[in-house]
């Protein structure tokens, strides 16, 4: 399976709390819910298409617990059948059990276990949100594709997907589009390394 990371971001790179003011208030974050005003039908259709490519999901603990709380109750939503029925893996050193079936807790050497999952047949192993997990997967060289959806807003605080001191990443743009509400959708494949150069007269 290909490991695909899907993230919502602000223009200043924040990925924390896109869905509601109380989604993630860790570290004193008070500006959650910044993504919701920019949702539109075109993006909803696109997100549904992406979801249809999944054969399994991989979550960090916080995102898993939020999804596990909400999605079993949202049976009328068109995405509910896929999210509730497909295998789910949660990376956590502290979660004793995963109740949202079918779910499996990955602890210990998570990157090695994710590498094993990627060797299984299938299409996409999707990471939704879970920015800290995405950072560790990037550092381990496990991410194949990034789907980054940038909202036209600057929030000025919050946890960023790519923090200072994080692992470098070489990327190749696969596609990009803008939805009517101003969401900027970029799809990148990971490349082997970051390339550097020097600008000059002979460049």
Task: Describe, in plain words, how this protein is organized in 3D.
The chain has 203 residues and is an alpha/beta fold. The protein has a single domain, classed as Dihydrofolate Reductase, subunit A (3-Layer(aba) Sandwich), CATH 3.40.430. The protein is 22% helix and 24% strand. It is built from five helices and eight strands. The protein has helices spanning 41-51, 61-70, 80-85, 110-118, 131-139; strands spanning 2-9, 54-60, 88-91, 103-106, 124-128, 145-150, 171-178, 184-190. It has an eight-stranded mixed sheet. β7 and β8 form a beta hairpin. The chain is globular and about 60 Å long. The N and C termini lie far apart (39 Å). The model has no long low-confidence stretch (mean pLDDT 95).
What would you say about this model in short?
It is built from five helices and eight strands.
What tags apply to this protein structure?
24% strand, alpha/beta, Dihydrofolate Reductase, subunit A, globular, 22% helix, 203 residues, 5 helices, eight-stranded mixed beta sheet
């Amino acid at each position: 399976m290909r490991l695909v990371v899907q993230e919502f971001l602000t223009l200043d790179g924040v990925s924390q709390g896109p869905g509601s003011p109380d989604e993630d208030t860790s570290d004193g974050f008070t500006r959650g819910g910044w993504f919701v005003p920019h949702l539109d039908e075109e993006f909803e259709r696109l997100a549904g298409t992406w979801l249809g490519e999944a054969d399994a999901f991989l979550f960090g603990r916080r995102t898993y617990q939020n999804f596990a709380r909400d999605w079993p109750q949202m049976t009328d939503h068109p995405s509910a059948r896929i999210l509730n029925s497909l295998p789910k893996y949660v990376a956590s050193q502290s979660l004793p059990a995963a109740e949202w079936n079918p779910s499996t807790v990955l602890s210990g050497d998570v990157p090695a276990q994710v590498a094993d999952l990627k060797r299984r047949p299938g299409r996409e192993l999707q990471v939704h949100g879970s920015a800290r997990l995405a950072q560790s997967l990037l550092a381990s060289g496990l991410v194949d594709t990034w789907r980054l959806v940038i909202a036209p807003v600057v929030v000025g605080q919050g946890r960023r997907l790519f923090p200072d001191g994080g692992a470098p990443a070489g990327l190749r743009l696969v596609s990009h589009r803008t939805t009517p509400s101003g969401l900027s959708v970029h799809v990148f494949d990971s490349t082997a390394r970051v390339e550097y150069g020097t600008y000059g007269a002979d460049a």
